[in-house]
Amino acid sequence: MFAPFPDPTWRLSESGYDPLRESSRETRFAISNGHLGVRGERAFTRGRLWVTPARTYVAGLFDRTGEAGGVPVLLPAADWLQVQVHVAGVRFVEEPADVPSHTMDLDMRRGLVLSDCIHGAGALRMRVRTLRLVSLSDREVGLQLIRMDVLEGEEAIALEASLEGVNHDLTPQSALPDLMTWRTRRSGIALAIAAAASLKIDGEASPPSQAGPLRSSWAWATRPGQVVEFERIVSVARSRGDGDAATTARSALRRARDRGAAGVAADHEASWSQRWACSAVEVDGDADAQRALRFAAYHLNSAANPADDRVSIGARALTGGDYGGHVFWDTEIFLLPFYCHTWPEAARALLMYRFHGLDAARAKAASLGWTGALYAWESAGDGEEATPPYAIAPDRHVLGILTGVREQHISADVAYGVWRYWSTTGDDEFLREAGAEILFETARFWAARAVLEPDGRRHVRGVIGPDEYHETIDDNAFTNVMGQWNIHAALQTADLLRRKWPRRWSELSGRLGLDEPELLRWRETADAIVTGYDPKTGLFEQFAGFFELEPIDLSRYVGRSVPMDVVLGRERTRRSQVIKQADVLALLALLPDTFPGDAGKRNFLYYEPRCGHGSSLSPPLHALVAARLGETDKALDYFRRTAAIDLSDAAAAIGGGVHIGALGGLWMTVIFGFAGVAFDDDEIILSPRLPAGWTRLAFSLLWQGRQIRCEIRQTAQRLTLALDSGSSTTVRIGVKRYPLHPGLPLEAAY
Fold first, then answer.
1. Sheet holding 31-32: strands in order across?
2. Distance between CA 101 and CA 126 in Å, rounded?
């Protein structure tokens, strides 16, 4: 159980200690199940003298604090992995630099973290191995195992297991021997942790010498050859509405104890096997790419919880505290494609979170003078706007943050996620009962937001696009075209409801006050929105006046270690054509059909050299677009840059958590870029463009109730498709079409 999976591309391994990179290791080695997340701090050689307790995060545990301008942030819970050892009455605290043998392994295949180390104190030497997991099959449950093999020495030793590091914004409510409860100070969310710990010495159970609320101690004498096994099972519950967190925690602990540690681990590994069967991507010929894709899928599978549609996935998932655990457009644009095609239940839950936040989005739009629904740029537990009002610049100046008011493309992004989920899964019930209302209310916002002016066109003024270096701009192409698309999608949905579900259309349109004159105004508005497209040049102008700004040759700044807005200063950056992240090219990634003829290539050639990639979300979109355009070498370079964000130690530490959006972008690049997967009505399209050195690519996809397996062999220039379940369909490869039937694999040249 303590041995990691043998294939090195299924695991991350790190040895020794580097204080500059310790926080990055804690991020990479995080474990999570969408409800409970634990950062990858060291499991045993710890003490309060040199390291903080392991950060544990619980999805939805938000509260307003005195920090971050008073917006809600995700609170860390108690460290349930805390173990302290005393040798001969003295607390055993080794300096990490003195433990060169210490190794940690993230076993991505089984979803657990292992460590192995030789420890010494005086005459005592022990080999200590640990295992930790948070169950993917029973999400309230966590498991910690420690095995100590005494190599030398006879000493009096004591071990204490406790909970430590409770956040000061959690108010204690009760403390019982097996259960503690807290409540957030302002939001009133209940948290409960129940635990059961045991110790065996040479296979015999040893009763604790002392016990208190979630705290137990054991004392014994060591001898060479002795084997000591510590086991702790915990359950962590958060209140859901009127739910009783304490009852939920006790019930989960009871289930886990009935299964035992071996049963908990077996159930967890079986759930991970199921996830990998749906989401594994195999690459032959490039071990680094294979490991990066497994790392991405590991964290993506770890981040979601289909059983809880009142929470979503923050920009760092449950692996760190950056951005206060807030949810951004990342979820719909960068994460949802993975879940739609590998885990539809998770995708549905994420979109239901947006549906539950619809009233908050309506209220935000109304507060700014518009109708419809304007979603929060940053949201926490209730869907209300959670963007901090200010930030502190590197020069210590206070900067106002405008994204919460002006980065409005979020409403179209949510709508895009709704439409993508429905078109991918065919989940008509979701569309009828939730998705349609989101589409209608976001379209209503854009119809109000795009103002008719004397030139006869509709303009959207005073916004921020994905390129956040340029604030308060007019007619951002991404914002306007996505808003236009949002309106058209809503109109298609209205036609669909009228034809297929007239009773639901009558009920919903009546409740929303949606009539034919308003739908007509939507069509007129969409047709009149300024897009910034110039048919003569084939270029979209990123926003009104962008082409007149100062061009900057970014090749002169290669090797810089800070973002371009720091290099140039904020004011010059605003007056320049330097772009923070994909903006027009984000539009090309999401709506490629909006670019006629060779316009996609023209826009890529124009905007790619102007992008400073000041966001982790930028390289994966550039990779995807480059791959689709046949720029495979450039796409692979962006793919590697994306993977390096979380896996390389060449740049700054990633102590705030993994960049989950970029990890979703890695998967998108491979599936929709290198494999060239696309869909058109009832047809799957493949246009493979594998990088040099990738001899084989294999993956599975869910689409419209079908389970499809694909294998692309570059050396033979052939691909194989198998329909494991679902109805027959058509496959287009190049200009040729082939039928694909269950049980009859298709093999074709490409």
1. 31-32, 36-38, 56-64, 72-77
2. 12
Q: Can you tell me whether residue 747 is helix, strand or coil? A: strand
pLDDT in tens, 154-203: 999 999 999 877 777 899 999 999 999 999 999 999 999 999 999 999 99
Axis crossing angle, helix 477-500 with helix 502-512, rounded to the nearest 10: 130
pTM of structure: 0.96
Rounded CA-CA distance 342/424 in Å is 11
Q: What angle do CA 423, 429, 430 make, to 5 degrees?
A: 65
Q: How far, CA to CA in Å, does 593 sit from each of 523, 588, 599, 627?
A: 19, 8, 10, 16
Contact between 126 and 82 under an 8 Å Cβ cutoff? The reply is no
Q: Please enumerate, by residue number, every residue annotated as part of a binding site.
A: 329-330, 580-581
Closest CA to 145 of 117, 115, 104: 115
The answer to whether the CB of 380 falls within 8 A of the CB of 72 is: yes
Q: Which stretches does DSSP call E strand in 632-727? A: 678-680, 683-686, 696-703, 706-713, 718-725
pLDDT the model gives residue 93: 67
Which parts are annotated binding residues for substrate? 329-330, 580-581
The Cα–Cα gap between 419 and 406 comes to: 24
Every domain of the chain and the residues it spans: 8-278, 696-749
As a residue count, the chain comes to 750
CA atoms within 13 A on the CB side of 749: 1
Cβ atoms within 10 Å of 18's Cβ, excluding its own: 12
Residues of the chain with pLDDT under 50: 45-52
3-state secondary structure of 296: helix
Yes or no: say if 158 and 83 are a contact pair by the CB < 8 Å rule.
no
DSSP per-residue letters across 544-612 = TTGGGSBP--GGGGTT-SS-HHHHH-HHHHHTB--BSS-SHHHHHHH-GGGS-TTHHHHHHHHHGGGB-
Report the C-alpha gap between 91 and 157 in whole angstroms: 10
Catalytic position from the list 41, 407, 468, 541: 468
- Tell which residue, 142, 158, 143, 133, has the closest CA to residue 228: 158
Question: Residue 124 belongs to what H/E stretch?
Answer: strand 124-134
CATH fold of 8-278: Beta-galactosidase; Chain A, domain 5 (2.70.98)
Contact 372, 443 (CB under 8 A): yes
Q: How far is CA 354 from CA 311, 335, 739, in A?
A: 9, 14, 38
Let me know if 152 is a catalytic residue.
Answer: no
pLDDT value of residue 48: 47
Please enumerate, as own/partner, the contacts of 512-519 that have beta carbons within 8 Å and a separation of 24 or more. 512/437, 512/440, 512/441, 514/440, 514/444, 518/444, 518/447, 519/491, 519/494
CB 245 within 8 A of CB 661: no
CB 414, CB 406: distance < 8 Å: no
Q: CB neighbours of 706 closer than 8 A, spacing ≥ 6?
A: 723, 725, 726, 727, 729
Looking at residue 655, its pLDDT comes to: 87
pLDDT at site 120: 85
Q: How far apart are CA 750 and CA 739, in angstroms?
A: 16
Checking DSSP bridges between strand 706-713 and strand 718-725, what pairing results, if any?
antiparallel
